[in-house]
Amino acid sequence: MSRADKAAAIAELSEKFKSSNAAVLTEYRGLTVKQITDLRNSLRGNATYAVVKNTLTELAAKDAGVTAFDGQLVGPSAIAFVEGDPVEAAKGLRDFAKANPLLVIKGGVLDGKALSAAEITKLADLESREVLLAKLAGAMNASLSKAVYLFAAPLSQAARTVDALRAKVETEGPVSGSAAPAVEETTTEAVEAEVETEAPAAEATDVAEGGDAS
Fold first, then answer.
1. What's the CA gap between 204 and 181, in Å, rounded?
2. Which of 20, 31, 68, 74 could disulfide-link to 81, CB 3.0 to 4.6 Å?
3. Distance CA 212, CA 110 (A)
């Protein structure tokens, strides 16, 4: 590889480090070309799986400010550059490694933070972004539905009261003629009862302020 080709390869790898959400370093010793292709296909949409040269990758990582892979770039190396959901990419790598033990997950970097192989496995155990968003949307819908119910309940009760009064009027007929005085008497009695309830308190106040209230 010429010096120009090396410089171009380093620049390309450095840009991948900078533009990716995360990167996972693996060792693929013993995997066939078909298996590597299958892994690439399984990660498609979330990550790009690239076989890399260790020396060039060390230089590219240094240029990009990535230190997570220091001392780990030995043996046949390949990196999953994650452009999509890191959780889904981690799941894809974990599941493939379970089915193909020759794939070794060595470590990674997520948003500039170094991840161990164990931490990548824990990341794979998390729920995906889509699932979390769906749960959040469901919780929000439930809260909104509850709020709507609480606001609607008093209106529903008022509507039922109006309907009951309407039904009573339809059954007994409108208040008119001889029935009117009875209604007036009932209203007057209610007002007088309310006044009588408040009167003692008013009289007590008058006595306290002006002595004899008579």
1. 35
2. 20
3. 87
> Per the confidence metrics, is the pTM higher than 0.85?
no
- Report the alpha-carbon angle 73-103-33, nearest 5: 100
Under 8 Å CB-to-CB from 68, ≥6 apart: which residues?
23, 25, 61, 107, 108, 109, 113, 114, 115
The pair of three-digit structure tokens given for residue 151, joined into one six-digit string = 């606001």
Residues 114-152: tens digit of each pLDDT: 999 999 999 999 965 555 456 566 666 666 666 565 555
- For tokens 């994650």, the residue is 82
